[in-house]
Amino acid sequence: MNARNTKRDSRRELDKIGKNAFACIKEMVDALEAHPENEDAREAIEQDALSIEVRSDWYTPGHTHHGASEFRILLSTGGPATRIIGELDRGEPTKAHLEVQDWFTPWTEYAQADEDVLLAYARVFYFGRGWI
User: Fold this and answer.
1) pTM, entire model
2) What is the residue extent of each domain of the chain?
3) What residues pair up with 101 in beta bridges, in sequence order?
């Protein structure tokens, strides 16, 4: 097998990982949106994530700082691994994309994921509120 075939097979595997991960995320979001008052649906999302992390932008000391500007939700580790990466505006997710990784491959965006679904998933979590 040559390097081109190996790369193509790796890409197919990453697409498969992304498709499966997104299907699980969408199923949980659909359940929550169908019954927003259902605490079990919200709790399923809360317990799905392995870790939630945020980070801030560069800013000049002494100037106004608005808190974290990016978030990362780790969904699974190892091979395969999945995560949602996104941007925050005053603690609210505003952009999101799904990334996948398999053994010995870099993190790769799964472009077929619907950003609205990823944002609905991310908005279940508390990322802190920006301060002025």
Assistant:
1) 0.82
2) 3-122
3) 81
